[in-house]
Amino acid sequence: MSASHTVHADAATIESPEDVARKARTSNMLTPRFYTTDFAAMDRIDVAPIRAEWDKMMAEYEGDNNHDHFQRTPEFADEARAQMAAMSPELRAEFLDFLISSVTSEFSGCILYNEIQKNISNPDVKALMRFMARDESRHAGFINQSLKDFGLGLDLGDLKRTKAYTYFKPKYIFYATYLSEKIGYARYITIFRQLERHPDKRFHPIFKWFERWCNDEFRHGESFALIMRSQPHLLRGANTLWIRFFLLAVYATMYVRDHTRPMLKNAMGLDATSYDYEVFRITTEISKQVFPISLDTDAPAFRAGMTRLFELSQRMDAAKAQGGLVGKLKQGALAVAGFATFARLYFLPVQRHALPEQVRMAPAW
Fold first, then answer.
1. Within its chain, how far is the Cα of 328 from the centroid?
2. Considering the entire predicted model, what is its pTM?
3. What is the CATH number of the domain that holds 284?
4. Is residue 29, in this structure, part of any structural domain at all?
5. In this predicted model, what pLDDT tens digit does every residue of 205-260 receive, in sequence order?
6. Which of 146, 166, 217, 270: disulfide with 185, CB 3.0–4.6 Å?
């Protein structure tokens, strides 16, 4: 975990495509990962229990209403260059960090979905993965164009070859990717609505594309919701413990990461803490479509735990900078404190609710 001053320092050193590649390849608690999974298990998925909703969704993918969305207008580059020149060094650093994290995350989805569709024969899942890989490829390419405006484009082919991969069982892929897609929607739509109300705060043209972009994210989440509802055992019994874990891990990662980039939210007229809890609220409401439990993110103990995790991340970074034996001892103690804080958050009471009969939702936020 990184403290805010360290994120600024790291991002400030990004002056070449090699620096971008180094940052994109980094794997830690706060960075997007590349995944692989059990292709044979993915091949056995049977969507018959939710066939009607599945076929309707696949027709939407086939219609491809975003086929022309990720095209830059002639004004985009001129506006981007003018706004980039006006950015403070701190905002530039955090914006670059945001772009690199975003393109890595989108490309991660593209690789995973493409690898699944290449390694299975199940026609339903194969078609879905092909459509989602198509969408994520567009997203990654579009963000990468904004990095290229800085002269810092990322070689995605090289990243695919050189970044480490993490193996996840299919059910972990479902939980984590569902939440990633839905929280991505909640993040992007909250930013879009804010800048829609305050266009003077829109410091880069990429934010104008966020509404239809995040609707792609929403539909990807719908796809995993249907897959999980077609396998009810994934949503009950001991598996609810995994659901609780992934909910907390995704929320905690977002909270710490956003608080390491305060200038980014401030430039949009947003407070990082208020923004995060609004995103948590939206994600919680959405996730009730498929998860029988949700976290009480308004509970004082939950909020205190989030603050504590961020404080520990700052102290961890300071200990790493200190180095030596004393620094390593501090890191060990802080790691234990972080684990204990996460454990306390994990065992807070959760909210329980019945699953709706109809799985799919509309992006209504």
1. 30
2. 0.91
3. 1.10.620.20
4. yes
5. 999 999 988 999 999 999 999 999 999 999 999 999 999 999 999 999 999 999 98
6. 217
